[in-house]
Design goal:
heterodimer, A: alpha+beta, Nuclear Transport Factor 2, Chain: A, 7-stranded mixed beta sheet, globular, B: alpha+beta, Rieske Iron-sulfur Protein, Naphthalene 1,2-dioxygenase Alpha Subunit, Chain A, domain 1, 2 domains, 7-stranded antiparallel beta sheet, 11 helices, 24% helix, 25% strand
């Protein structure tokens, strides 16, 4: 795969990411990450002030699976559907072969009664590596401008 | 006649709560006067947020915008965050450092004690315009709150009649603050959660240990908290504040199975976390308490959930909306591993918390459902009726009755009804 083929694969991975969440296929969504991945949702407030606290953090794929199991089995959350709108992706290939990718997003949540609200707007800052030709997220950092979270943060952003 | 007067209290032990108290706009306005501007100490911030001269934060007491800063003499002062001139908000930033507070509208400038220092064009131009000669700049000060600190936790009050902070908190609450704020803290960051429900529903929620393992199934599923554990509730003399506490690992499976029998979601399906590091408690206090929820009337919660420490401030946004402002911290002497552990455990709480995300939903469900049931009442009998007192069991919601008994006094309902 050449550089442009890899770039297409990185963008396709980011597209899969949002669609798998929106289709509630979270078990498949987990498979887009490396085993030792980092997944963080950060509040822009903390990023700007230099505080390390996350809104949600997973330091490996096991923790991501735990989140999904907890959502499925333990948590009682506001039932809704998510719809992501992904902006244009800016990519860069690093000297070690990994790719960094950045894109803005918005997420709308719709209730069981069919009311929709903007839930979050922000930026993905990703690091993507290739394993056997397959792109995976080594790092997915979600910087959330909507850090005054409406109701709760249940499904991933 | 105060509108809180119209509320009906069918029992004198507050085991029935009138739903109208959560919904009525006039009651909300009255609460801002009688409670948030009344003889109570409201939580403002932690001293560690403003360590240096000129450091400030902006916050809300009820729905009043408040500016808190550290003066040159090291004292902390708090003001209504509004210019005395035309009422513009003085500071828009959430936090920062300033030598003066200059209003952006007409640049009236105040020093860190709230004293007006400068007005541009005070003498006008070419001898015309400007302030009249009898205008006394020294007489203009920002509307200030009285501020007191206990163990680095800052509280403010608008009333001259509020008792000293140490008396307001009482022995039990002071002991809990002594326990957690036993050495210098280090801030980790903030979280915010907007909930479409009344601010008192959240106060109820944190005074209700009974819901902990029923609403928050993660707790029960993974054993962090079960009402079958050793624990209890401790209040102050007026029962306005509460400490719910429990100890991990003190329940047995048989008792748990019996206690949860009949619930829809069984607590033990043999789930194990792939990464259980988040559930580990590195014991760091002399006692065995692994979970503490301290509620201080009217707007503060402090939690110790194993090693996750934070304050939660309740800001009101009208009768039907509140913002929770979570301030997480560790200790200055934490090593990197401990800091990472606390950050990891922050996954348990906050708006995305595995054991707390449901609270927002619960508050909203109540608020929506009772809208046209304002003459009806909620039932508060779990744990017992009658006397409101401390006890050493967790299947209880008695502290909710404590909250309402003090609310009733503050709102002047009894006095009005007697008159």
């Amino acid at each position: 795969m050449g550089a442009s083929g890899e770039r297409d694969a990185v963008v396709a991975l980011m597209i899969d990411y949002v669609h798998l969440i929106d289709e509630d296929r979270l078990e498949d969504w987990v498979e887009l990450f490396t085993d030792d991945c980092t997944y963080k949702i950060l509040s822009r407030e903390n990023v700007d002030a230099g505080y390390p606290l996350e809104l949600l953090s997973c330091h490996n794929k096991g923790m991501l699976r735990d989140r999904v199991v907890s959502l499925r089995e333990a948590n009682l959350y506001n039932l809704h559907t998510d719809k992501h709108v992904l902006g244009m992706v800016r990519t860069n290939q690093e000297s070690d072969g990994a790719w960094t990718a950045q894109a803005n997003f918005s997420v709308y949540q719709s209730t069981l009664d069919g009311e929709s609200d903007l839930f979050a707007v922000g930026t993905y800052r990703d690091r993507v590596v290739f394993d056997d030709g397959r792109p995976l997220f080594a790092e997915k950092i979600v910087v959330n401008d909507t850090f005054a979270v409406a109701r709760m943060l249940s499904t991933p952003i | 006649m105060p509108t809180a007067m119209s509320l009906e209290w069918p029992t004198d032990d507050f085991s029935r709560i009138p739903f109208a108290a959560y919904l009525d706009e006039d009651i909300y306005v009255e609460e801002q006067e009688r409670i948030f501007r009344g003889p109570v100490w409201s939580y403002l911030a932690l001293e560690a947020e403003i360590p240096n001269t000129g450091d400030f934060i902006t916050t809300y007491v009820g729905d009043t915008p408040v500016l808190v800063n550290r003066q040159r003499d090291g004292q902390v002062s708090a003001f209504v965050n509004r210019c005395m001139h035309r009422g513009s908000m003085l500071k828009r930033e959430c936090r920062g450092n300033a030598t003066m507070h200059t209003c952006l509208y007409h640049q009236w400038a105040y020093d860190l004690t709230g004293q007006l220092r400068a007005v541009p064009f005070a003498k006008g131009h070419m001898g015309r315009g400007g302030l009249p000669p009898d205008f006394d700049i020294k007489s203009v000060k920002l509307t200030s709150m009285r501020v007191e600190s206990y163990q680095g936790v800052l509280f403010g009050t608008f009333s001259d009649e509020t008792e000293p902070l140490v008396d307001y908190l009482g022995d039990n609450v002071r002991a809990e603050l002594d326990r957690v704020f036993n050495r210098p803290i280090s801030l980790l960051g903030y979280q915010r959660q907007r909930i479409l429900g009344n601010w008192k529903l959240y106060n109820d929620n944190v005074r209700d240990p009974n819901h902990g393992a029923l609403l928050h199934m993660f707790h029960a599923t993974f054993g962090l908290y079960r009402p079958t554990q050793r624990g209890g509730v401790k209040m102050d003399d007026r029962h306005r504040h509460n400490i719910s506490y429990s100890m991990m690992g003190t329940s047995d499976d048989e008792a748990d199975a019996e206690a949860f029998a009949g619930t829809q979601k069984v607590f033990d399906k043999g789930f194990r976390l792939e990464d259980p590091s988040m559930l580990q408690y590195d014991k760091e206090y002399p006692d065995d308490v692994s979970l503490t929820i301290l509620s201080i009337f009217p707007n503060m919660v402090m939690q110790q959930i194993t090693n996750s420490l934070c304050t939660r401030q309740i800001q009101t946004r009208g009768p039907g909306e509140l913002e929770l402002y979570w301030t997480y911290f560790g200790y200055e002497d934490d090593d990197e591993k401990m800091t990472q552990h606390r950050l990891n455990q922050a996954n348990l709480v906050g708006p995305g918390g595995l054991i707390s995300m449901e609270d927002g939903e619960a508050v909203e469900m109540v608020h929506r459902a009772v809208k046209r049931e304002q003459d009806e009442h909620g039932i508060v009998e779990i744990g017992g009726k009658g006397e409101i007192a401390d006890h050493d069991y967790l299947v209880t919601e008695i502290p909710i009755r404590g909250f309402w008994s003090y609310y009733y006094d503050l709102m002047g309902i009894e006095a009005e009804q007697a008159a």
